[in-house]
Amino acid sequence: MEFELDDDLIAVEDLASQVFGALATVERVVEVERTEGGFDATLWKALADSGLLGLALPESAGGADMGMLGLTTILQQQGRRVAPVPVWSVVAGAALPLARFGTPEQIERYVPGIVDGSIVLTGAFDGNPGESAALTAIRKGDDLVISGEIPSVPWAPGAAGVVVPVLCDESVAVVVASADAPGLTVTPVSVTGQTADAALRFDDVVVAAADVLPGDGTQIAEWTRRRIRLAIAALQLGVCEESLRMTAAYTSERMQFGRPLSTNQAVAVRAADAYIDTEAIRLTMRRAAWLIDTGREDEADAAVLVAKWWAARGGIRVGLTAQHLHGGIGADIDYPIHRYFLWGRQLAFTLGGADASAAALGDILDRAPSIGAAG
């Protein structure tokens, strides 16, 4: 594969950079966190109007059919601005599985609204690799009656609904649960990244058969988690890139003993290690995205876990390096680098941290195709 972006993806990168750069300034991000509940509705509308929300979706669902390479290119730019909008959870966690597995009626009901920004559906697929669904359901005629609680669902406050796997009759079903369904309680919670998350409690919530995705729920859930993990890795890449850029600028301008801090060998070596970690996230993430977009799901299964491992382990190292090399100002919670540190920590542990990702990778290595294998 080619690890460089082609002309179409470069155009996407430029457009996303312009939108996030214009509307997700440091001052605006702080304002959204403090006064607007952590969700920037203005930026969300701009992303929809520019066509970026539908970019990864197939043309049959109203998208541009640019797949995971398209989505990860957008998310990388979002990460550079730590922009408070739910791109990864809405597109990877809801729109993509609906477009791929939904009935024509489900696609018509939900996907156009996601693409134009009028509907926010978030995915609730969090948990460590290998864990079973947090929610259980019993059948009542053709409907499902769901109970249980999910401690933290990304971007759930204000969402119209959630796409979530549930355990029913020893099998998994993936459903779309409306946020205003009787028995569903949405309670906002504080999270490390300061984004808009909520705990969801289901007390005998009825989901009609029309809102159950057809097919094998276990396969749908794993297909979706694969894309969510990759989306998180892309977002982490942007966070690391900007953290490293800010650190390079600061250490080049900060004078110590009459010379720039960056000329200190220990500083240069620490920054170089952070650069290597960032590049490892980039290369593993793009390889996994390419495998998915070329239909090589078996290979992508392992490749995504590798990318998520680097996003977790390498992402934390980059965040610590950036904060440390900023010295005392790096500990100031109002200084911009601290927000990147928080986002990096949040992303590292979403859908499994480094240890959980490595354990899941170990479980599939005996059946995963080798890198460079013919096929």
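The above is record 1. Record 2 follows with the same two-line structure.
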Amino acid sequence: MPEVPEVEALREFLDGQLVGKEIVRVLPLTINALKTYDPPLSALEGATVTAIARHGKYLDIVAGDAGLHLAVHLARAGWLRWKDSFPPEPPRPGKGPLALRVVLGEGDGFDLTEAGTTKRLAVHLVRDPADVPGIARLGPDPLDDSFDRDAFARLLAGERRQIKGALRDQSLIAGIGNAYSDEILHAAKMSPFKPVKNLSEDEITVLYEVMRSTLREAVERSRGVAAGRLKAEKKSGLRVHGRAGEPCPVCGDTIREVSFSDSSLQYCPTCQTGGKPLADRRMSRLLK
């Protein structure tokens, strides 16, 4: 799933490609992707794109004098594919991975696609981003200049969850998912199952600093990369996530995995759990 670094890179890419251009056609190709009906997508046709914003994992394309917002969440298997031109015949709805097509006045534009059979890509056309429930509930952005160490500590106060789950909660902190939570915890040398309430003040400081540096470095790696190559760039930059069985780049120990019903996490025992492997079963706990 695209997280803060990839969505931020897409935002910067679209800022250079879309702003100032007129939208001439918006073609919804799968009914389940469109989550709103008022205003209709046709309200975008003839509007000029004025800005591109990001809210956590959401892209926000702002267009027209009325400031309509086309908010897109790519979910786990969605992606944005830039096109310099399109075939003259419009695509057939419901065929293949295409979910939405946006065509600009110069003949270029983009497709939103989603692979697989589980369709979770979401498109909202709203007058205010806060009208999108997923955006309205977002916590602070971890890269925002106003999000300092003390603000982070206040968010964690009273938390009873494990660190991994807290970092992934979009209502607590916006934009961090499965991959970068693994990367942050590896860099911080913390077990994904450590309870937040057990963090010392020094550990909160370390976690905050590592979270910011890990995400900023990933944004820098992604900056300037063409949209079609961002997924590969993300994978190449990850040190532990998705690398079970490979040596840890820090200590050389074998990266381990814990699998759940619909996801998995990766970690280094030597770096993060005092050399102890985590039980690979649902509701895993540190082996005693």
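The beta strands are 23-28, 49-55, 58-63, 68-73, 78-83, 98-104, 109-114, 122-126, 256-259, 264-267.
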